[in-house]
C-alpha cells in the first residue's frame, strides 16, 4: 500500500499531452505520481478549466476488490462535508479480453482534488527538520475540523469508521483546513465478533488497511466474543493529536527499539516529552482518547465538546 498524500501534492511538470475522458469530461495526464499494490495515481489537468486534479486508478483482480473500490467511490459521493475529500468524477472501466487472462477484471478511476500544501505529515516533517512546533491554537483549530469530519462518518445510520486516520491521510487545503482522505479503508463501524471467521477477517483487514502506528489495540488481536465499534477511530485521533503536538506517533521510539506494536498499544502508558510547551488540556485529551479499554473511550460527540471548549478559549485570547 502506498501513501496517497504524496501523490495528491506533487508534480508540476507537463510530460506530454496524453488524454482521457471520464463522463464526457476531458483530462490531460501530466505525469505519473506513484504506484503501489494494485493502485497508482496520476496528476491530471482539466482540459476546459486547466485545474489540476489527482486521478487514482484501482486495478481490480476480483469481485471483492471491485466491491471495495465501489464502496470507496460511494462513500466519497455520499459525504458532502468540507473536511472530507470530495469526489470529482469516477468510472469503472471493464478490461479487454487480453487483460482478463492476467486476472484483471476492471479498473476503477477516481478523480479528486489536488492539494498543493500536502498533508499534516508533510507539515510535521518540515517542522521537525527545523526543530519547530505547531502552535497550540492551530492544533485545536485543525483538530476541530478533523473531528467534525469523523463525526460525519460516525453519524451515518449505521455508523461508518474510517479505520486509517493518520497524519498522512489528512490533507491541508489552501485555507489551512484539514481534509480527511483515503476512504478505501472505511467500513461499517460496528462488528459483533461472533466466530473465528469474523475475527480473522477483521484482523486481516486491519493489518492490510490500518497503519499500525495509529491502529487501535482491539484491531491487533480481535477476540471472538468481542465487539468493535467506531471508537477505533477515536484511538487513531488520539495518536494523531499526539503526532501534531510532538511531531511523531506515540509509538515511534518503542518501535525503533524493536518493541511489538500489539504489545505497546496494550500498555496504557503514553509518555509525553518533558516541558512539552503545550497545555495540560492537550495531554489530558490524548490520554482520554487512547484508553485501551474501549468502554472508557469517548464517542465523537464527547470529544467534540472538549475540543470546542478549548478552541473557543484560544479564539477568545486572540
Automatic annotation (TrEMBL):
Record-level GO cellular component terms: Golgi apparatus
EC code(s) of this entry: 2.7.11.1
Cited InterPro entries: Kinase-like_dom_sf (IPR011009), Prot_kinase_dom (IPR000719), Ser/Thr-specific_kinases (IPR052239), Ser/Thr_kinase_AS (IPR008271)
Keyword annotations from UniProtKB, A to Z: ATP-binding, Kinase, Nucleotide-binding, Serine/threonine-protein kinase, Transferase
Enzyme class: transferase
Annotated Gene3D superfamilies: Transferase(Phosphotransferase) domain 1
Protein kinase domain boundaries: 27-311
SUPFAM superfamilies: Protein kinase-like (PK-like)
Key word Transmembrane present: no
Pfam families: Pkinase (PF00069)
Reaction(s) the record says it catalyses: L-seryl-[protein] + ATP = O-phospho-L-seryl-[protein] + ADP + H(+); L-threonyl-[protein] + ATP = O-phospho-L-threonyl-[protein] + ADP + H(+)
One Gene Ontology MF term: ATP binding
Keyword Kinase attributed: yes
PANTHER family xrefs: SERINE/THREONINE-PROTEIN KINASE 16, SERINE_THREONINE-PROTEIN KINASE 16
The protein, known as: non-specific serine/threonine protein kinase
Source organism of the structure: Magallana gigas (Pacific oyster)
